Amino acid sequence: MELLAPDQISEEETKMEAEWQSYSRYWPPPYPPGVRFTPTDEELVKYYLTPKVRRQKLPYDSFVEDDLYQYHPQELAEKYNASMEEEGNWYIFTQRIRKYANGGRPNRSAGLGYWKATSSDQKILDREGKKIGYKKSLVYHEGKQPYGEKTGWVMQEYKIDESQKPIKAKSMVVS
After folding, report:
1. Residue 66 lies inside a defined structural domain of this protein
2. Is the pTM of this model over 0.85?
3. Full residue range of the structural domain in which residue 91 is found
């Protein structure tokens, strides 16, 4: 291996190193260039969300946990050093809070807007055909419900099937 003096390192190499460091800043561990984390819906539910809800060890802990509904999506992008220009997705574990204490409807207010469902729950099946969870698409709207303005921010929300959840588990989703 050859070591170079700082003045021998090209500007491009310096930029690449800075970019590499920024990737690992919030989403550890970093992926080598060209490697992508692209789990299927089944893999997200089976290997990440279900163990998280059951408080088990995750096979690869590249997710952050945060209160997704406290932020405008752009604030999350800035907080976690991501942007819409970057290819790929980000994954955030968050608790789903109910809008009313005794109701089943989730509170979708976030930042100065809200997330609006654009699809009903879609079943996620494992390889044996057993229902293990659900996926729902949501779009962020700026402003007050129901008059908010639709934005380009889209979220896929995953939740486990009730039969997979421990009795006293909180409602946790990955978005």
Report:
1. yes
2. no
3. 38-174
